[in-house]
Amino acid sequence: MVQDPDSERRRAPRRRRRLKMRYWNQDLDGLGYTVDMSQTGLLIETHKKVPVGTRLHLEIFLPEGSFFCECVISRILQSTSAVAPVLKSGMGVRFVNFGEVLRAMADFQSDAELKNLVIDLRDPEKFKKTFEQDIKRGGLFIATDWPPKVQSEVTIHLKLPTPHEDFLVHGNVVQVLESPPGAGIQLLNTEQVKEQLQTIMQAILRNTPTT
Asked: What's the Rg (C-alpha) of the chain?
């Protein structure tokens, strides 16, 4: 089950600490104070109203120097005059983790980069194993940190053992995995691909010395 990041943040041990800080993006620039903090986020005292989901840069002013990080606003606190001395207006934020940074970086890759994939099958044994376990069943697994989106049509360059040139196959992404990172591909023109690669594999096996 996928954990709600905001629920996880609220369960994390919190420590009260008042530090001056700045938050900003291309549309706003504000100052505030930290109220409390944890390993996953912090509560900021400020009168500015910023929508939930807004991405911000943070600079927290520490005695030894500034600390910079990225965050996303997860909740807004709006106090009334009756409770203002106890509960200040502000916003709760969660820190952006590195997995989110990687996914954001992947969004900047072109469609051509994401949809042209490579599998290195230059080792005859690896080629044989991939053919028997995956290709004959009409699929392939692409190990990549930047998998294309599900339902994308992709081109896969199979690097084959010498002296054979790269072999191109086409398919549709049917599954994206995080561990191990990669994509499951359903091949197009499966029977034709299997027939052509079977011929190449038989030629390789005939020329591979037995031990």
From this structure: 26
